[in-house]
Amino acid sequence: MDGDELAGVVDLFGGLTRAELDDAVDELAFKRGEEADGVEADVENALRDYYLVEVDREDETVLAPGPAAFPSPPEYATDLPHILDVERREISRDALADAVRARLEADAADAEPGSERARSLVDATYDAEAWAPVDLGDVRAELTDDA
User: Which InterPro entries does the annotation name (predicted)?
Assistant: First the structure.
């Protein structure tokens, strides 16, 4: 499942824990008559590429659609709120902004300025600024070696 589809599933609920997302993907696979293979790798890729963001909320960590995502629920996803026993979560834009800033700062510290990963992260900073109330000019400067 690609990042936009995972974000689409998560978006139906506002946010899901990893276990809840696993259950949702299992349900979708069952409805499609398929096996839910590679979900963990798909989630990790979606996190790496900012389609999903981990946010600490109350006493749990939830996945929310990230700044790179165009949430697109896959076939049968609209049935999930009727199948899963999960309440809709409201996640503040400020909490999302804080989570994505922390992630981008950590990723920027590990990226070589000018590398392909750094260029990808620069794009993510622009996406994030359009998506949540956050200024990431300092992170971009670090990624481009303009700090």
Answer: DUF7109
Residue 56's nearest CA partner among 27, 8, 98, 19 is 98
pLDDT digits (tens, 9 = 90+) for 65-106: 999 999 999 999 999 999 999 999 999 999 999 999 999 999
Locate the domains of the chain by residue range.
3-83, 93-143
- Write down the pLDDT at residue 103: 96
Q: Residues near 115 by Cβ (< 8 Å), separated by ≥ 6?
A: none
Q: Are 30 and 96 in contact (CB under 8 A)?
A: no
Query: For the structural domain made of 3-83, what CATH number should be given?
Result: 1.10.10
The structure's pTM equals 0.93
Residue 57's DSSP bridge partners are: 60
What pLDDT was estimated at residue 17? Answer: 96
Provide the token pair at 120. Answer: 């990808």
Of 67, 63, 69, nearest to 3 (Cα)? Answer: 69
